[in-house]
């Protein structure tokens, strides 16, 4: 029971740090609880994905709203649920990368609270692309899409956890270093269990569950890309780099579902 409570508190730490859901009471921040937090990153993503699919289902099935309105409200949900935390990382990392400076200068740019032109442009491209994918995916919705949408943040948060513990920290401070210092790569033994368990449960509900394998491959490709480029571009990971990785991975996964909509499912 005590061990289960540590996992629950770790999950609540994730809600407090990575979502806009108000957690008003104080949570323990010792290493053991931060370790459980890292181990429950995928569960945080699954929780987000359930909300996305539930919002889509309710709006699509029980409201008179147009397809455009439904897509727009789902798009807003993906933004507001996280409180824009990862989007901030995307903006800062974009500003730093497109400065075309050395690693040290890029880290300084990411700490600057001001937003540059490249950050603005990159966030416009990210959010407009996501809206396009959501709009066209939901134009001909079927049950399999609810599953795929549910899994998008599940895989992106899994990528965040692996990236956090498999790439060195670029600096000895910040949110990324705090979580990285609390766990080791072996902490991620539970991630494959999450994935296998999810696939087994979902296979009971839909015969096209094999399509999830395509999402897994896309997420794995994003992970490999981020592992190499985080070190090359920034000297390692920071909180902003992790946030950018989450947003970039989710964009690729939304695009993957969009392509499945055109060439496989429909």
UniProtKB/TrEMBL annotation:
Membrane topology: Multi-pass membrane protein
Cofactors: Mg(2+)
Catalytic activity: alpha-ribazole + adenosylcob(III)inamide-GDP = adenosylcob(III)alamin + GMP + H(+); alpha-ribazole 5'-phosphate + adenosylcob(III)inamide-GDP = adenosylcob(III)alamin 5'-phosphate + GMP + H(+)
EC number of this enzyme: 2.7.8.26
Protein's cellular compartments: Cell membrane
Transmembrane segments: 12-29, 41-59, 65-87, 115-137, 143-165, 177-203, 209-226
GO biological-process terms attached to the record: cobalamin biosynthetic process
Assigned GO CC terms: plasma membrane
EC category: transferase
Family that this chain belongs to: Belongs to the CobS family.
Role, per record: Joins adenosylcobinamide-GDP and alpha-ribazole to generate adenosylcobalamin (Ado-cobalamin). Also synthesizes adenosylcobalamin 5'-phosphate from adenosylcobinamide-GDP and alpha-ribazole 5'-phosphate.
Annotated protein name in UniProt: Adenosylcobinamide-GDP ribazoletransferase
Naturally occurring in which organism (per UniProt): Neobacillus massiliamazoniensis
Taxonomic lineage of the native organism: Bacteria, Bacillati, Bacillota, Bacilli, Bacillales
